[in-house]
């Protein structure tokens, strides 16, 4: 698919702070795209520039190849669902959803039909006469989504759309959001700081750091093959170990480990995911194994997180699945091992 929206060298400053630093990005037609990053990474600023609420200091924003950097928000085929939902408390659910249609001059009969369709789409049939204060948090979120979708935007912007929901409702609503995106065919761009949310819902994820894109791609590709130390640590909190490569091996003096695998010459760091590390029943010898002592154990539901200090002094994070039995206790001496294919070489 071709690019629906393209950012070219977008730059935005707030005083001495650079929020976006010559950022380039393409978003395809009909794509569910996630902007992921920590506080101050630039993701919300980028969303506001796409919506038209902020103007870039430099660069261009292209929609279908046309520069819309100076186009006001109301003239863009873009809608935004705010984190606070921004519902009018004095209006009914139906009137909240119809607000944009009324402002656009849509005839009453057509307006009523489209509002009914939008409420049905989000599962709120029969809620049209209620007011926001009579709704739960999840229902308010659906009203805000219906108000955005009723305008039939080609691009829908979602600012932390699931942030106000509890854990169980977040998961269910996330799947419903994904289904709605497929049904409408609109491109969705979601801002989130929740990596699980981004990985579960998006077709592609852009991880931002300091106003730049650290990596962009399908969720599995970014998770399994991070392009930098920052990406490896941010997504899934991988173990990142420094060292040097020679003859297809990587020596990490800080951990006392020799990694073997497809490690290019010049590699100065490798990443190893906690869930890729196994506790060996018998002592391992040679590369891709290490002895250590369990310093702490944290139960997380479907697994336990172990902090294991190697004999050389480095601490490795190890995810021990519940299905593999009880985790070793604090103070236990264990041997860890992993497959060569799970070692990811990181660039300098």
Automatic annotation (TrEMBL):
Gene3D superfamilies: P-loop containing nucleotide triphosphate hydrolases (3.40.50.300)
Matching SMART domains: AAA (SM00382)
GO molecular function: ATP binding
Protein's name in the database: ABC transporter ATP-binding protein
Source species, domain of life: Bacteria
Record key words, sorted: ATP-binding, Nucleotide-binding, Transport
InterPro entries: AAA+_ATPase, ABC_SmlMolc_Importer, ABC_transporter-like_ATP-bd, ABC_transporter-like_CS, Mo/tungstate-bd_C_term_dom, P-loop_NTPase, Transp-assoc_OB_typ2
UniProt-listed Pfam families: ABC_tran, TOBE_2
